[in-house]
What does this fold into?
Amino acid sequence: MTKSIMPDHPILELLRKRWSPRAFADRPVEPTKLQSLLEAARWAPSSSNEQPWNFLVATKDNRAEFDRMLACLFEKNQSWAKNVPVLMITVAAKNFAHSGKPNRHAFHDIGLAVSDMITQATALDLFVHQMAGFSPDKARETYSIPDTHEAVTAIAVGYLGDPNTLPDDLRERELERSTRKPLNQFVFTRKWGESAEWAG
Amino acid sequence: MTKSIMPDHPILELLRKRWSPRAFADRPVEPTKLQSLLEAARWAPSSSNEQPWNFLVATKDNRAEFDRMLACLFEKNQSWAKNVPVLMITVAAKNFAHSGKPNRHAFHDIGLAVSDMITQATALDLFVHQMAGFSPDKARETYSIPDTHEAVTAIAVGYLGDPNTLPDDLRERELERSTRKPLNQFVFTRKWGESAEWAG
It folds into this structure.
C-alpha cells in the first residue's frame, strides 16, 4: 500500500513516499539499517553544532525493554505501537554544553535530526511514525533522564504492514488521503499574510 | 568545493552532500526551484498535522525587501548573508489552531519542515545555511508577525560560492572538516547514558 500525495510542485520521490502509518509488519529492522538511521540523524545541522539530540531505542527482540518503552506512550498509541519492531524516544539537551545557557532551538534541532533519519528510513523501505502522544515524565522516570534534558517525541520504526490489522477507526485514518495547506497560506513576502506571487 | 564528511555507517548521498556554507554564488535561485523547496517543506509531518510552519521569503531581485530582511540578522551573519540570493525567516504558530492550546512541538515541527526543504535543495544543487543569529523581535516588528506566532530561524539559500570571497576567520571555518559526536554518545538503550551495543 502506498499513499499518493499530490504535490503542486515537483519534489523528491523520497519525500513523496513518506507518510506515517500505524500498521507495521511483524518483521524486525536489521541492525545495520538502524545504524544508518541514527547515522543520518547524527549528521544533521544544529545551532552552534550543539547536536542536542539523544535517542533512547528499544527493539522488540528484548521484549521486557520494549514493553518499558511502550508503557511511556499514551494508550491510544500503545494500541498500534505494540506491534512495531522498534520504538524510540528522542531527548533534547535543554542548555548549551559550552555556556549552560538555554538552547532556544533544542526542540527544533531534534526535528532536523529526526527528519534526516526519516529520509534515510524511506530510502531503506522503512516507515516512521512520530508521536507527541506519550508522557515525557514517565520517560524521565523510566530512563532516569536528567533534569538538564527533556523527552521530545516517541517514534515507531518498521516495515509497512496491512491496514486491515488495525481497529476500524485507525484503519479509516490509515487509508485517508494526506492533506496540507496550500503554499499561499504559509509562504509570505513583504509582510505577514501577504502571499509570495510565485507561491501559488 | 565539496565537504567530504566521513560517516561511520552508510547514509544517503543527499545527506552526505549537505553542509552549511557562508560563501554563496552571485546567482539567483530559479522561482521553480523555490517552489519545490517550499513544497518539500509543505509535506513534512507535524503534530496533529498542525503544519505550524510559516516562511517569510525575500529574494535579491527586490533589493529593498531583501535589505529589510537582512537587517533582522545579527551583524556577524549580515557580513556574509548580504551576498546570498534568497533569505527566509521561519515563523511558528505557537498554539494549536483547533484548541488554542500551546503546541509543544511547534519549533520541533519547523525543524522537520526545514529539513525536508534542505534535502530538496541538495537535490537541486542548492545549499542552505540556517541561523539562530537573528532578532525575532526585529522580525516581528518588520513583518508585523502577530503575538500568536514567533520567528524561529533565519535561512540563507543559494548556489555554492567561492570560500576566497569570505573574510579570513569565516574562510577558515568554511574549509574546516565537519564533525559530530559518535553514535555511542547519544544513542542509548535501557537507561540514560547506556550505549546501544549496535551503536558503535
Q: What stands out?
A: Chain A touches chain B through 77 residues (CB under 8 Å).
